[in-house]
Structures
1.
Amino acid sequence: MAKRKSFLNEFLRLKKVGGIYAKDRSKGFRYLHNTITKRLAEGCEFKIGDLDFSRFTEDDLSEYMRYYERHLEPMAEEGAVLFSQISYDTVSFPMRKQYRGVA
Amino acid sequence: MELELKKDSFLDDVRNIRSVRRSKEQPERSEGFLYLHEAITGSLFDGKGFHVEDIDFSEFTYEDLEEYKDFYNSHLSERIRAAGLLFSAVEEAAAMFVPKNSFH
Amino acid sequence: MIPLLKYEITSLFWYISKLKAVYKQGGREAVKCFRNFGADTEEYEINCLDKLENLPECTEHEYLREEFEDSNEIGDICGEKWIFESEDMCEYYRLLQDLSQRKLITDDEYRFFDSEMTDYILHALVNKQYNDGGFHCHLDDGTMPDGYCHIEIYNYHDGSFGAFDAVCGIVAVFERYKERLKFLEEEFTVKDETEVK
């Protein structure tokens, strides 16, 4: 059954970029994506100690950093901007009252 | 920024905002867009306040988010801030008010 | 999803890339030092300033104050100083001197092993810092009269100081002293025992 399209799934799905298919990404690249980004995206805690530094090369890390900055960071930024705007706007919004006639 | 402070127009305004969910007059609004709208306005008008931790990121797409961001900035942001300022001012005034007599 | 919205994830990757470079050069202990650091990198530099003082090799930490000529006035804090030492470091230099004096290593070998550690300190610790006067490092190998074996590092507040890089560097340096001491002992003291027999 195909995964329902959602912000979270779109964020975590490795995209075809610059002619490189997701299946062609190195094990190290995938390891970084799963251990850091996926964990954080699913709301789990991440610590440096969760990383096995023998499972990725410096090139894998550079490649993943480029991928994150170009394709994932803009998505996260959109969410961050919207929700921080809402948090700012609602800081004075009364929380204690029901508004009759509105529901 | 100015809003008329007539009670009816403000309530109507709020009703119109919330009714994006109810009326479906704009059929192009996706389920994800409606989810965001309900999650945000619902939490505000039910008195719970907005908390980003309550948002389920599997319930809307990136496109929904972009669409809602435009909608929020065009229609909601100014109104919510104005409402917040108004109610803060009223609460502050009420806190200073010491009624000496009953008013019949 | 919230952590990805809250934290600077590209900054996290930047720190991970620094640790990967340290790991690649053999700094396993240095990487382990950060195992409890999380995704919020805004705390990293402050946490690392605390960590410097709490490293097992740190024997002293003091704040530096401005000094005024011809005055007893106490100046404002202008920097900090840490002193680091270890038994392995001291034994390394003591053994080198001993091997040299007993002619178990040549003068060239002595200079090689001596400069090898100096070069490593430069590479792992000093050269990772900005060169704007905020960071200073002094190595005393304990061979001079009145000297004692230690490393001093200074953070002058009117310049830049990378606490994260300083922790990585200090831990890696002392890890290297331990490895190289083991090498010297295995390579030359076993030979020494064989010759005595």
2.
Amino acid sequence: MLACVPSAVLRGVDGQLVRVEVHVSRGLPGYTVVGLPDAAGRESRERVRAACLSSGLPWPLSRVTVNLAPAAVRKPGSGLEAAIALALLAAADALPAGALEGIGVIGELSLDGSVRPVPGVLALVGTLAAAGVEQVVVPAADAAEAALVPGVTVRAARSLGELHACLKGEAPWPDPPAAPPPPAVVADAQAAGDDDPADLADVRGLHHARHALAVAAAGAHHLLLVGPPGAGKTMLARRLPGILPRLDRGEALQVTRIHSAAGVRTHGRLVERPPFRAPHHSASAVALVGGGSPRVRPGEITLAHLGALFLDELGEFPPSVLDALRQPLEERVVRISRAHATVDFPADFVLVACSNPCPCGRPEPRCACTDVQRARYLRRLSAPLLDRFDLRLEVAPPDAGAGPGPPSAAVRDRVATAVERQRDRLAGTPWRRNGHVPGAALDTVAPLPADARRTWRAICRTRAVSGRGAARIRRVARTIADLDDRAEVTADDVELASMLREDLA
Amino acid sequence: MSGGPDDERAAAALALVSLPAITPARLRRLLRAHGGPQTAVAAVAAGDAAAAVGRARDPAALARLWRARLDVPAARARVRSRRTRVWVEGDGAPFRDPGPACPPVLLGEGEWPGALDGPRVAVVGARAASPHGLADAAELGAVLAANGVTVVSGMAIGVDAAAHEGALGAGGAVVGVVATGLDVVYPRRNGSLFRRARASGLLVSEHAYGVPPAAARFPVRNRIIAALADAVVVVEAAERGGALITARHGAEMGRTVFAVPGSRRNRAAAGCNRLIADGAIPLLDPGDVLLAIGTGDPHARWHPPGPGPTDPDEAAVLDALGGEAATADQLARRCRLAPGRIAGALRRLAQRGLVEHRRGRWWPR
């Protein structure tokens, strides 16, 4: 009379284990769901009933109570319906005892009895696997993604009737999910494939800024390019994905999990290219850092986790939105607190931003903005935010003599080398890249040789940089040396790092 | 002009300048019709001023408004408390040869009455001047001051401020012609310059106290700058800049107009080169302008460049700049040094003031 099936719901970008308990007893026929479902969960009654009847399965004319445990946690979404239906069938003796032993179920039901896909399957299956479930039933459309989780047997469910037959042993389980077909339209995260037409070789001039872009990609240093329209700064920044090294398997799983949970189609494949997110400047603070109620959703900075966030026309973003970025930029994680839940989203990204130097937006010869107007425009960007850019560069339009630079592939190789060096150096520390190392740890992690230190001190004195700024110059200098595959930071590296961090005015 | 009976005259003139909808033409008609400030004030107080209004929808109504708003006691208090100096048309005004373009009443404030006694040269130019233009303006201001010449300019950002600063730094006198009331500091950024200009010269204006900055008043103000000077020097001016208006007024008033020639690549100098093409004298050395006004050392030269840097990287970078502005990319292409070495050379040069970074370009001094 009682049956219990493990399932899971999304909580942020992670899974939350939910035990679906169904009790069928004598009494007036009725159906009650308890355990804080949301509106979609309460509506499940109609979908579960119709799906059972369409599949030719019995619907008990009894009193049905569905409990979603733990009872005190809100359960958003409709992904528990398949689990409810199977638990109901078991409780109503339509499934043999023990048929559901060790099986977790995920999926939404359609009125005709088919099992519909749900977002975040990778995270949900991971949660079930961690809870000791051996077999997981997932919607057929999500089976390929679920198969990325090691240690569980994935059963693809097409419809409730078929599921019922397989569980009873009347039919064999369908074949394990085939490799996903090559998608015709790939999600933006994968758009920057190897055949990416946006190559650095297309950009004329801007060698200095190009170097800064490579430094940003290699050491996870945030980069701000300021320059008049037509200087090519957006064109350059858009080519960042082409020089970011591929994600390793652990990173790819993290990114895929986040994207799946956020509803970005991953087509059952691992996201192996670092994500590149470019929200428009009309984005709200919630769209950028995450939020929402009752289901707290990840924002663009979380979708850019382990990749890059590109903000074009930084000065046009509302200042309040930009200031919401300050804490995640520093901590590489964002904590969203709402009345009913507090969720931590990972937000480890490289911020690349472009801005016009003045409000008129006219290219250089026709711009008549005064220094005061320019200073006022850049003052929209708060000093603490500007301070968080390790690399700040004012670019001028390339002149006639400027030629093309090295192609993306060549730069990507140098970046990969630099990443490798950092991986070795930072192994056993909480940091992945030079850009993450706090100032206090620099002396142990990346010590400066005597002559480089003398130069660094001289720069700090003459430029009157803050303590934080001084640390940023050191970190960038370390990455410059890594890009050249050198063990020692030289005085020239420090000089270049200082030049790549201009005082914008 | 301060003291006893003059105070009354100054107060009367200030009261007239402060009338609503007053224009230089109306003021001039008032003064001419009634013979002087005090008699004009009496006429306005009696409501007899309609004839001076000239073209207006209802001259009588404006005359009634003038009668209602005329406030001689307030003007008297202002003149006493601020020690305002007032020049009225016809009393040996400070203008070299007052023409119809000059205002009938000019107000001044400042601690150095002698600023308007000696030779005077207007140094004007663009607000968005290049580092080169700013340096030239400052040096010219200093040379003029050292030769006992008062520098006249508009107290604006850019070349104006640099010329004033140069003259003040050399211990000279300045005359700042403002387009607002004398109690308004605009641009606010130049607050300290305004204080020092009052201490070492004069601020003058044709407007009543409290008149705020307005775009239309700035070009009109430029005719006063030209009228107060013996010669006009344009240091840097864009193709359509306010400084060209000053130069045109100067030419019309018969002043010698100089322009500092610039590179064709320097857009801030395009107006100067145009002036030269139109007949202005290219200012090759500060002595040229001293020669033209017949005072000081006609052989005064621009400050000669110091000895070049001994460090080979720094010398290579300065050579690569070639006296003009360049981006970091251009420098890298021209001097073929590693980016880090260029960066170091530029930083050391900037520290000694030999180069300056501005808007993505490096400028040699």
